[in-house]
Design goal:
The protein is α+β, with helices and mostly antiparallel strands. Helices cover 23% and strands 27% of the residues.
């Protein structure tokens, strides 16, 4: 299902550049997916992955056997990630939104 993801100023402030699990984009996507104590969200390069942590000893590790689903990130998102990872601590990227196809079974219920 195509879903709008909003990367807010709060995500940018709280995010950890260079972190696959806690970068601003991962924080924003995490708000839209169902919480699961056994599944991690990892953002790497041009994909976001949902990873089953019970299939390996390293939480968030991406391997063939533990990827639940992968979602191709739009170019604007990979550009943002690059910018976020390379800016100095005195600069900050701007909030933005993007469309991402997330499997319906992974989405939070909406009220």
């Amino acid at each position: 299902m195509i879903t709008t993801i909003q990367v807010t100023a709060q995500h940018i402030k709280e995010g950890q550049p260079g972190s696959a699990q806690y970068c601003p984009v991962a924080l924003a996507i995490r708000e839209r997916i169902k919480p699961d104590p056994h599944v991690s969200l990892c953002v790497r390069f041009t994909f976001a992955y949902l990873v089953n942590d019970t299939r390996g000893s390293n939480p968030g590790h991406i391997g063939q056997s533990n990827v639940v689903t992968s979602m191709k990130l739009p170019q604007e998102v990979t550009d943002f990630i690059y910018q976020s990872d390379t800016l100095s601590r005195y600069q900050s990227p701007s909030p933005f939104e993007f469309q991402l196809e997330i499997p319906e079974e992974c989405l939070k219920e909406t009220a």
